Amino acid sequence: MKLYEKTAAELSDMLRAKECSAVELCKDIIERTNAVEDKVGACVTRCEDALQKAEAVDKAFAEGKELHPLAGIPIGIKDNISTKGIRTTCASKMLENYVPPYNATVMNKVESANMIVTGKLNMDEFAMGSSTETSYIKKTHNPHNLDCVPGGSSGGSAACVAAGEAIVSLGSDTGGSIRQPSALCGTVGLKPTYGSVSRYGLVAFASSLDQIGPIGKSVKDVSMLYDLICGHDKMDATSAYREYPGTFVGLNNDVKGLCIGVPKEYFGEGIDSYVKESVFNAIKLLESNGAIVKEISLPSTEYAVNTYYIIASAEASSNLARFDGVKYGFRAKEYDGLIDMYQKTRSEGFGDEVKRRIMLGTFVLSSGFYDAYYKKAKLVQRKIAQEFSQAFKECDVIITPTYPTPAFKIGENIDDPLKMYSGDICTVTVNIAGLPAISVPCGKTESGLPLGMQMIGAKFAEQTILNTAYAYETLCGGFSCIPDTL
Ligand code: GLN
């Protein structure tokens, strides 16, 4: 087995047992990236100083220093997370040459743990999309089938782990963008409870829904990385002030007596039969090992996609007002006065999907339509959150598919925004209610495309969903996300 095929937990032990060095690991990742990146296209920017950082880790190990368990582990970062001195494009022409003067809080944590940042990863422009096709920079291909999308918007983050171009990665999730690409690429992805990971330095899409989270090959890896990045941050006013005892030490794969809620609304029409079957099989496996399965109902699910697209677009239209050609990045070359400069800059700098969201958001916030759309969406949001709270009185975990279908072909849905939006049905409810959820692989189609299952927990119940995911992973004998065909 090559080093790039191993998990962070395995590599962490190997580094300590001197079975490999951080430099060897980093070289292996660089070689692998050189070999597959042209086909996969996960990276926007590669970090040239990775090897130097790995040397420093080996030196620290040699000096007998106590290092964080993730020290020396190669990590890729979604390109909407601010990295001091490294271009952060949000896959937009607007920020194509923007180099942040500061780090996101998660980046300070990644650096203080001596992880090795290998590159900044492709995504849908400003994280708007489900296929990474709205990127201005390039297309990303699914490592399991290069004709297919990797999912989105953190498509580069999932594809890079599944291609062996990094061991773990960070993504962001506003309506499913960590879980959906994880499902489509066969990786494990965690969307943490709103407020548990600092958003300081994450370029805002919809501030009340956005969360940064980890992607990896295994539940242990995701748990380790979550433990590193979570925690209160005074730089983020929405950061939750509480104790974070660490999920890795608490990992437990015993599901005896665990109550799993299965909401019937997530298994209806539109969910592919392969997906349904594989999720049901996984639930049965957990049941036969002692879990209790209960059918539940979350009736407002049918309004979730509409609610999400109203709230997310409203916030996006406000957040993206800052890109005006004055403060950041791109400015149109020719213009006639200030207003014309704004117009030309924004017309040329944003892609079609971003413009669509800004227009939709401005519309639902306009005085004539605010009550009919935005206010109503906020009421439905409360209803969705209440139904989840009620459900968590009866069960510990809710299991659903992550995405209605396996990865689709590049180009297949890009001209049909409503079809693309409707695919978000299983994931957006979680962001609307501010809950944590994890996507784990639960099988493959006949042609070898991965399928994903979502486990949703009550607020701050990361440990419960990680334990359930860990139990399932153990029962399956582990996951493997790197295809032999690549
Ligand atoms: N697919 C959803 C959207 O396009 C979710 C994106 C995300 O989570 N960033 O809005």
Describe this structure in words.
The chain has helices spanning 8-16, 22-40, 50-62, 105-112, 155-162, 179-185, 219-229, 273-288, 304-319, 338-349, 352-365, 371-394, 417-422, 428-433, 462-476, and strands spanning 43-46, 74-78, 116-121, 168-173, 188-191, 211-216, 259-263, 292-296, 397-401, 437-444, 450-456. It is α/β, with parallel strands linked by helices and 486 residues long. The chain has a domain at 3-259 and 436-476: Amidase signature (AS) enzymes (Alpha-Beta Complex), CATH 3.90.1300.10. An eleven-stranded mixed sheet has the order 1-3-2-4-6-5-10-11-9-7-8, sandwiched between helices. Helix 2 (22-40) runs antiparallel to helix 3, helix 5 (155-162) packs parallel to helix 6 and helix 9 (304-319) crosses helix 12. The longest helix has 24 residues, at 371-394. It is globular. The two termini are 15 Å apart. The model has no long low-confidence stretch (mean pLDDT 98). Residues 127-130, 153, 173-177, 205, 312, 424 line the site of glutamine.
Largest sheet: 11 strands, mixed
Number of strands: 11
Distance between the termini: 15 Å
CATH class of the domain at 3-259 and 436-476: Alpha Beta
Sequence of strands across the biggest β-sheet: 1-3-2-4-6-5-10-11-9-7-8
Structural class: alpha/beta
Helix content: 25-40%
User: Which fold does the CATH topology of the domain at 3-259 and 436-476 refer to?
Assistant: Amidase signature (AS) enzymes
Into which percentage range does the β-strand content fall? 5-15%
Q: What are the bound molecules?
A: glutamine
